[in-house]
Design brief:
The complex is a heterodimer of chains A (90) and B (246). With 90 residues, chain A is α+β, with helices and mostly antiparallel strands. Chain A has a domain at 27-88: Alpha-Beta Plaits (2-Layer Sandwich), CATH 3.30.70.20. Chain A contains 2 helices and 4 strands. Chain A has helices at 44-48, 74-78; strands at 30-34, 54-56, 62-64, 84-88. In chain A, the strands form 2 sheets. Chain A has a two-stranded antiparallel sheet. A two-stranded antiparallel sheet of chain A has the order 2-3. The two termini of chain A are 24 Å apart. The model of chain A has no long low-confidence stretch (mean pLDDT 79). Chain B has one domain (22-240). Chain B contains 9 helices and 6 strands, in the order H-H-E-E-H-H-E-H-E-H-H-E-E-H-H. Chain B has a 6-stranded mixed β-sheet, sandwiched between helices. The radius of gyration of chain B is 18 Å and the shape is globular. The model of chain B is unreliable at 53-73, 97-101 and 240-246 (pLDDT under 50). The chains are: A alpha+beta (90), B alpha/beta (246). Chains A and B meet through helix 1 and helix 2 of A and helix 1 and helix 7 of B.
Chain lengths: 90, 246
């Protein structure tokens, strides 16, 4: 995207929607998958996500936003209950 | 709060004020996580008053020594408080001390100790491995009278050469091995935020990181001794309740 020159100094995107066209999730190799039988809805994955890619669903479980997730695997390692596994992106 | 500690993440504000855009942060970026937690603690409106519009990697000339090996150029977030007081938050990814590879052996500057010696009213160290501690400290620093300084150790998977999924774990290991103790200095008394009763060996922290792969066993023993002495000195000054230079 040719939005770089329009950004402010330090590339701070004050408007959330500005980051969407970058589609930073495009280069990931793995994505998290939740086992909802093990998940206790504690929210640790949501807390530790560096890219704020994990969102809460209406039923209280969590899911990852494909536009923002970079597939780093922090959520899978930090999950206390082992409910998250990293699945290879198809 | 301890009883429900597992479910505390649900009580945090859901508003996301900081979304790191693609080219700025790598995957598993500890710095992005730390900035996100700071945003969560302070809220959007306060951050916009800060100096975040100056470059994200702000190089601070007064922190640099004459020797290029001794310089210390982290990214700083400066937030004005009431009465011209400033809350400075330093996001330290040790880029200029370890990842640069100048070939010289040196320790990084102990910035919290410098801040204490300079008479900053509230000084604290934090890590994204202990997120609630970080959030509480940022809130407390903003509410405390006088200038405040918070030093956050941000694991950097690229610079430190470890797996991206370890980012939070490495941040926690830095505290568990006493390499980066968590403490806060307010009103001339030092409080340990996490007192480590049985420190893990320093090797646990070192072995995951590619930047330390040239360390030999004797180096490791020396490092372990230095860390033990530094931590003992810090915790002894805590008990006396004095102004410490840890």
């Amino acid at each position: 995207m040719s939005m770089w020159d329009k950004n402010k100094v330090g590339c701070i995107l004050l408007d959330k929607k500005l980051a969407q066209p970058f589609n930073k999730g495009a280069k990931r190799t793995h994505k998290p998958a939740w086992d909802e039988l093990k998940c206790t809805k504690c929210g640790l994955c949501y807390l530790f996500c560096p890219d704020a890619a994990i969102k809460e669903k209406a039923d209280g479980f969590f899911t990852s936003d494909a536009d923002y997730c970079k597939g780093c695997g922090v959520c899978a390692r930090e999950c206390w209950f082992g409910a998250i596994t990293m699945v290879e992106e198809s | 709060m301890d009883r429900y500690a597992v479910f505390v993440p649900r009580l945090l504000p859901r508003e996301e004020c900081f979304l790191p855009d693609a080219p700025v942060s790598c995957k598993g970026c500890g710095e992005a996580l730390a900035v996100r937690l700071v945003y969560k603690a302070l809220g959007d409106g306060l951050i916009r008053k800060g100096s975040w519009k100056v470059p994200w990697k702000q190089s601070v000339p007064e922190l640099k020594g004459q020797d290029p090996g001794e310089r210390f150029s982290p990214s700083l977030l400066r937030l004005p408080k009431a009465d011209k007081q400033v809350l400075s938050i330093c996001f330290d990814n040790e880029a200029c001390t370890g990842a640069e590879g100048t070939g010289k052996e040196f320790w990084k500057k102990n910035m919290p100790a410098v801040a204490v010696a300079e008479g900053v009213a509230y000084v604290a160290t934090a890590s994204p491995g202990y997120p609630f501690d970080l959030i509480e400290k940022v809130k407390r620093a903003y509410a405390a009278p006088g200038d405040a300084y918070i030093h956050i150790l941000c694991p950097c998977p690229v610079g430190w050469a470890f797996d991206a999924s370890m980012a939070v774990t490495i941040g926690r290991l830095a505290i568990d091995t006493c390499i980066f103790p968590l403490y806060e200095v307010a009103q001339d008394t030092c409080l340990m935020s996490v007192s480590v009763a049985k420190p893990r060996p320093v090797k646990d922290y070192i072995k995951f990181q590619g930047r330390f792969k040239n360390l030999t066993d004797t180096d490791m023993e020396e490092l372990q001794k230095m860390v033990t002495i530094a931590y003992a000195r810090l915790s002894s000054s805590t008990q006396q309740g004095e102004k410490k230079h840890g």
